């Protein structure tokens, strides 16, 4: 099993450009999450999904959109990138029920917005 | 507001010594988790302790939970250079929810 994978690993964008980050998991998890991590800070939840076709806002959703068209994929979109969105983005997934408490993380995507 | 806050922010020890990290949280929880993050990598789940447990062990890891003080500690015994990483505590935003709030982490450096 590959677990949770993220593409791309690294990307440089200019202000105003758009991009989509892809997260894929092969563990048949219902729940998926997108976080951002900034220097000296913990992870902050951007959006999450509790199942295929559903999405919900987290702590810092502004400037981002998400889609969960397939159970195994969770896409994070930046419509018009801003320098404040320079960060490392992590995707995670978890089971349902009491097992949903443990999250499995991808390796991260480093995004630099100039 | 942060649910989990770690202390200290950074810790540097020699190989073979024990490392203790603390975490405080604000609201009632049904579990608390610890994760490790190696430099440039994603987080890896280490251990989960439930609110009705006071102590839990996993290999060289020992976690305690004091619900009256809303605090937890992670002890790594006989540390190794490979333990060098950032350690985060995480607690559910809601009592039975799946969303987690992470602290800012403790950067542990184990010197050979």
Largest interface: A-B, 24 and 22 residues
Q: How many beta-strand runs of chain A? A: 11
* Helical content of chain A (DSSP H or I, runs of 4+): under 10%
**Unreliable residue stretches of chain B:** none
Continuous helix count of chain B: 0
Q: Sheet with the most strands of chain A?
A: 7 strands, mixed
Helix content of chain B: under 10%
Please tally the β strands of chain B and state the result.
11
- Beta-sheet strand percentage of chain B? over 45%
| End-to-end separation of chain B | 37 Å
- Element string of chain A (H = helix, E = strand): EEEEEEEEEEE
- Estimate the mean pLDDT confidence of chain A: 94
Quaternary structure of the protein: heterodimer
Main pleated sheet of chain B = 6 strands, mixed
Total helical segments of chain A: 0
Shape summary of chain B = globular
Structural class per helix/strand content of chain A? mainly beta
Distance N to C terminus of chain A:
36 Å
Q: Which sequence of SSEs, written as H and E, runs from N to C of chain B?
A: EEEEEEEEEEE
């Amino acid at each position: 099993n590959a677990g949770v994978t993220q593409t791309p690993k690294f990307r440089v964008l200019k202000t105003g450009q758009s991009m989509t980050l892809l997260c894929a998991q092969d563990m048949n998890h219902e729940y998926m999450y997108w976080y951002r991590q900034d220097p000296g800070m913990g992870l902050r939840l951007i959006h999450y999904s509790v199942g295929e076709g559903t999405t919900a806002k987290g702590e810092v959703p502004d400037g981002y959109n998400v889609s969960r068209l397939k159970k195994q994929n969770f896409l994070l979109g930046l419509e018009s990138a801003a320098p404040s969105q320079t960060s490392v983005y992590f995707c995670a997934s978890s089971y349902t029920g009491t097992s949903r408490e443990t999250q499995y993380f991808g390796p991260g995507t480093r995004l630099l917005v100039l | 507001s942060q649910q989990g806050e770690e202390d200290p922010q950074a810790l540097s020890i020699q190989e073979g010594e024990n490392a203790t990290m603390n975490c405080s949280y604000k609201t009632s929880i049904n579990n608390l988790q610890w994760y490790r993050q190696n430099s440039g990598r994603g987080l890896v789940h280490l251990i989960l302790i439930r609110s009705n447990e006071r102590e839990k062990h996993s290999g060289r890891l020992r976690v305690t939970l004091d619900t009256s003080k809303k605090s937890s500690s992670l002890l790594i015994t006989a540390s190794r250079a490979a333990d060098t990483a950032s350690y985060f505590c995480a607690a559910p935003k809601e009592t039975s929810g799946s969303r987690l709030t992470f602290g800012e982490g403790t950067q542990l450096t184990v010197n050979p």
